[in-house]
TrEMBL record:
It comes from the Bacteria. InterPro entries: AB_hydrolase_fold. This is Alpha/beta hydrolase.
Length: 226
């Protein structure tokens, strides 16, 4: 495993042998809003005798890597390093923007409410513009986009480099198999719960966590690779 990935914190739960679920949180500030619910899902998986791990990405959460040094490419490499070092059959479970970096070669994939990078970027830029307006500064989308193309900018509490911005503009979840993708909602193939990524503060949804654990367990059971 490369040094940056090796140095990051990893939360583990459940059995230390057998198949394991590697969670990839949403990106940037959305990760903080979903972390507690993902931890509940990990505990629920442990109760079902399924192990799980949640590694920090370089530049996120407790990482010592400066956020402005992170790119989608470096995060993709970090996850591939975790996969290579694990030695167990792995299902990668990604949420929202996590699906932009989850394409490491593993036994199976599971995605919850995947989103395009351009959509994430636009939301963060709009949040920045609204914050500037409240502070008495008039910033246009065109001005912010021009600045972000040439220098690091602060968006949603994160300082993002021009390289990260450029990658986000073009990033989409990679088509990969076997992969199950589920939305948030009330339909037959949807998971019920609240869109925690839209909340102003971190929260948790125990019902959603249980639904995540149930859906992942069912998907793993149906995959021949486990």
């Amino acid at each position: 495993m490369s040094a940056p990935a090796l140095a990051e914190q990893i939360v583990r739960d459940g059995p230390a042998t057998g198949p394991v679920v590697l969670f990839v949180l949403p990106l940037f500030e959305e990760a903080n809003r979903l972390r507690r619910t993902v931890r509940l899902a990990m505990r629920a998986l442990a109760e079902r005798e399924v192990g799980s791990i949640l590694p920090d990405l370089p530049g996120q959460n407790e990482s010592l890597v400066p956020t402005h040094e992170a790119t989608l490419s470096s995060w993709r490499t970090a996850l591939a390093d975790h996969v290579a070092a694990n030695g167990r059959p792995i299902l990668i479970a990604s949420i929202r923007g996590g699906a932009l970096i989850d394409d490491a070669a593993v036994a199976a994939h599971w995605r919850f409410a995947p989103v395009r990078g351009a959509s994430l970027l636009k939301t963060m830029m709009r949040t920045r513009i609204a914050g500037d307006r409240e502070a008495g500064r008039d910033t246009s989308m065109a001005e912010l986009e021009a600045k972000a193309a040439n220098e690091a900018v602060r968006l949603a509490g994160n300082i993002l480099s021009p390289a990260m911005i450029a990658e986000l503009r073009e990033a989409e979840p990679v088509a990969i198999a076997p992969c199950r993708s589920v939305p948030l909602g009330t339909g037959e193939d949807a998971l019920p719960g609240r869109p925690l990524w839209l909340q102003a503060e971190p929260g948790e949804d125990a019902g959603l966590a249980a639904a995540i654990a149930d859906d992942i367990t069912t998907w793993m059971t149906s995959c021949a690779n486990f």
